[in-house]
Amino acid sequence: MDDVEIVIVGAGSAGLAAAKVLQAAGRSFHLVEALDRIGGRAWTSSDRFGMPFDIGCAWLHAADRNPYFPEAQTAGWTLFHHDMGLDHLYFGNTRATVEEMAAVKEADAQIAALIEGHSGDADQLSELIAQGSALRAATTFSGPMDFGMDDDEISIADFRAAADLDPNYFTKEGFGALVARFGQGVPVHLSTPVKRIRWDQPGVSVETAKGTIRAKAAIVTSSPAVLAFEEIAFTPELPVGHVEAFYDLPMGMLTKIPIEIRGTRLGLNPFDDLLIERHARHDIFFLCFPFDTDLMVGFVGGDFAWEMEAAGEEAGVDFVVDRLAAIFGGEVRKHVGRSLMTKWGGERTIRGAYAACVPGRAGARATLMQPVADRIFFAGEHLAGPLIQTCGGARLSGEAVARQVMATIDRAA
Ligand SMILES: Cc1cc2nc3c(=O)[nH]c(=O)nc-3n(C[C@H](O)[C@H](O)[C@H](O)COP(=O)(O)OP(=O)(O)OC[C@H]3O[C@@H](n4cnc5c(N)ncnc54)[C@H](O)[C@@H]3O)c2cc1C
């Protein structure tokens, strides 16, 4: 491959965005992607259900600041404003009483106040959550189902720095399809994993499965887990602070298990939010029949989601159907159609859903935002400021870093 000014590693939301900024500025670059498709964690597939289903990101969070939102409107995407308020709550197989529902709603505000007012050295979110079913149920959303981590693995400082993601919109045509549309026309080398980045001479030398590219700088958008697992070797090694930051930003997990329920709506309405609180964080959340399709989309998060992926798709689907049968009656089994379980942990070039700082290590993100030797820059959802963990945030990170790289190169010239 020809020498260029900049190599971008990864054609997810961040990498595509960086490429588009460079393209618009007339800079030369190569965008290299290990997978045989663009989008990374933004991926809509119609293969299983014969209609678009988002295997990865689905909600356009923070729509008022999310650059994908106006593009979805322009593209004529069908958008639903989803308030994410809890409509149905079960403790085990027992429906929560009206009083219990009210207590959970109050607990939301209580947790927000506890986080806001928190000071001191303790940095685990679990420290703030007293024993009690209401507080616990309220934190299921913000913890495992949102941050992808159990509450004892969430840093309060990291959590507090993340934005409130309202307003949230869901799309019928798929968020992954929107990102693919965004990436149309961007030249990309697919199925081209980067193996090593050398920075022991001027510029960088990026070794891929299909040859070596020399450039002035590299933008690396791989997840921190990919970097912690040393899928890309660096020669010489990166500064120890950067290496430690990869480990301080482990990947959280969210596993989706959508099931077709045909011929009944179980007394639920499209887009209802249903939560089943269980022991030891074996909780499950359902997005009910979005857009009045036949899908009950189950979500499990945090450690349980990793366990579920290890147990395999059949076990995951059985778990979901058993939960529905326990609540709505055994008849529901007759209505079950096709199903799916997402498996992001086993995707070697991604290795999880999104990153979250280890308690006490919330500085890791700021460390990785520092370039190495003005030649190796990092971007992605894990470096997206208040929009961490989101696809829109990843795009903003990619755009900002592309501008930073151009300014750095120009300064050196
Ligand atoms: C199940 C799930 C649900 C989610 N839900 C939402 C949601 O509703 N809303 C939302 O906004 N966000 C959501 N997210 C998060 C969102 O998808 C991500 O934050 C965003 O897509 C990350 O973009 P990125 O560019 O930072 O990383 P990625 O999408 O991971 O892109 C990085 C790319 O780099 C490639 N790569 C890695 N290593 C190499 C290498 N060595 N050589 C070449 N290529 C390499 C990878 O294959 C990948 O394509 C969800 C994620 C998951 C997994």
Provide an overview of this structure.
The protein is α+β, with helices and mostly antiparallel strands and 413 residues long. The protein has two domains: 6-42 and 175-248 and 360-412, FAD/NAD(P)-binding domain (3-Layer(bba) Sandwich), CATH 3.50.50; 85-165 and 254-339, Polyamine Oxidase, Chain A, domain 2 (Alpha-Beta Complex). The protein has helices at residues 13-24, 68-74, 98-116, 133-147, 156-161, 175-183, 224-228, 240-248, 303-311, 313-328, 364-368, 391-412, and strands at 6-9, 29-32, 44-45, 53-54, 59-60, 79-82, 88-91, 94-95, 168-171, 194-198, 204-208, 211-215, 217-220, 233-235, 251-252, 254-261, 273-277, 284-288, 295-301, 336-339, 354-355, 376-378. The strands form six sheets. The protein has a seven-stranded mixed β-sheet. It has a four-stranded parallel β-sheet with strand order 2-1-13-22, with helices on one face. A four-stranded mixed β-sheet has the order 12-11-10-14, with no helix packed on it. Helix 1 links the parallel strand 1 and strand 2 (29-32). The protein is globular and about 70 Å long. The model has no long low-confidence stretch (mean pLDDT 95). The structure holds flavin-adenine dinucleotide. Flavin-adenine dinucleotide (FAD) is lined by residues 9-15, 32-35, 40-42, 56-59, 61, 193-194, 221-223, 226, 231-232, 254, 256, 342, 344, 349-350, 353-354, 380-381, 389-392, 394.
